[in-house]
Specification:
single chain, alpha+beta, Lysozyme, Glucose Permease (Domain IIA), 2 domains, 8-stranded antiparallel β-sheet, two-stranded antiparallel sheet, 8 helices, 14 strands, 15% strand
Length: 384
């Protein structure tokens, strides 16, 4: 496969997107014990009683019914009332058989509209008749003011509208939320996806890792979307790991894939890079429409996608020009290109990276294996 430092010249100049100050929620989730994983991340910030948090269990995203009568676990930035409202939103979704992805979308929407607070009529806004968790308006047919101020009613109305939207399960959260809400700020919902995912995982037994509308007890496959909104880019054995002793500057993992295997976007987002950057060691142009080698620098044909929470994913060594262009919005699981061996590579594979805080340089890269595992889309071959 590829030699060390394959992405040294892949990314070009360091790119930074304005930080959102959000904790990447999938790294704060409880342990994932299904799909062959045992990794766990604890970043702190959880309140409430320790025995209550652990009582939820790690689970595999099955999301059993929530007992609204008990004291709920807490997340540092949210109060008891906000957590209870989130639990009500999830509980209503469970009763309506809405897949867990819908719970994430609903909570992300409520975080934007009301910060999970059941707001009364504020009186000073142009849309001053907006009420409740989702800021629904009586004049737009959502119900009476009294009905909308009931969190269970307003949650049910949100889900009823969501379920009428074709393809909502695979949409980026911000698109699905906007289709329901028709907000004047349609891109505002995206920044809440990490926290919404964390809330669902905490309150519903890791349910944001479940495969939306599919069997939650088996691993996600390419094109199948976990409730967190993530999917595996390509299925295959990991043949080279992240920053191993032999390859300390290897910023991602190499996944074995025959030439022309479809590569999928790991989550919804915006394409920020789609180009060829292969050059010979001498500095002479090499190009990407032919096989690379260990004596070629760069990712070959590659794509970077910016996702919610300022997370960026990278996909290297495509066999031909990517299917997507810079500025294009893509959905989770959308085909973005075909695997190959262009650039710094010695055989067909997909080099996959994850970067935080909008930093696509070496310093922003993290190990994609535990990240994707906690997102419910573990890399590598699925369990039999």
């Amino acid at each position: 496969m590829s030699s060390p430092d394959e992405t040294n010249s892949a990314a070009g100049p360091k790119r930074r997107i304005r930080p959102l100050g959000l904790v990447i929620a999938v790294l704060a989730s409880v342990a994932l014990l299904c799909c062959g994983g045992t990794s766990a991340f604890f970043l702190g910030g959880l309140g409430g009683d320790a025995d209550q948090s652990s009582a939820l269990g790690p689970g595999c995203g099955t999301g059993g019914p929530i007992d609204l009568s008990r004291k709920l676990p807490r997340i540092a930035q949210l109060g008891e009332e906000q957590m209870r409202n989130a639990a009500i939103i999830i509980s209503v979704g469970q009763k309506m058989n809405v897949p867990p992805r819908g719970w994430v979308i609903a909570i992300g929407t409520a975080l934007q509209e009301s910060v999970l607070t059941n707001l009364p009529n504020l009186g000073s806004r142009n849309d001053h008749d907006s009420l409740g968790l989702f800021q629904q308006r009586p004049r737009q047919g959502w119900g009476t003011a009294e009905q909308i101020m009931d969190p269970q009613y307003s949650s049910r109305k949100f889900y009823e509208k969501l379920l009428t939207i074709s393809g909502w399960l695979t949409m980026p959260l911000t698109d699905a939320a906007q289709a329901v809400q028709s907000s004047a700020f349609p891109d505002a919902y995206a920044k809440h996806e990490p926290l919404a995912t964390e809330i669902v995982n905490l309150l519903a037994n890791g349910a944001a890792r479940a495969v939306g509308a599919l069997n939650a007890l088996r691993c996600v496959l390419p094109g199948e979307i976990a409730a967190s909104g993530w999917t595996v880019p390509v299925r295959g054995h990991i043949v080279s790991g992240w920053r191993t002793p032999e390859r300390p500057r290897h910023n991602g993992v190499d996944i074995a894939a025959p030439k022309r295997t479809v590569i999928h976007a790991a989550a919804g987002g915006v394409v920020i890079t789609a180009r060829c950057n292969a050059v010979a060691l001498s500095g002479a142009p090499w190009g990407c429409d032919r096989d690379g080698s260990p004596f070629v620098l760069g990712c070959g044909w590659y794509v970077d996608i910016l996702h919610a929470g300022n997370v960026t994913t990278r996909y290297c060594h495509m066999i031909q020009r990517p299917f997507v262009i810079v500025g294009q919005r893509v959905a989770a699981g959308q085909p973005i290109g075909l695997s190959g061996t262009s650039g710094h590579s010695s055989g067909p594979h997909v080099h996959f990276e994850v970067h935080l805080n909008g930093d696509t340089s070496w310093g922003g890269a993290i190990n994609p294996v535990p990240f994707m595992q906690q997102a419910g889309a573990p890399l590598g071959e699925p369990q039999p």
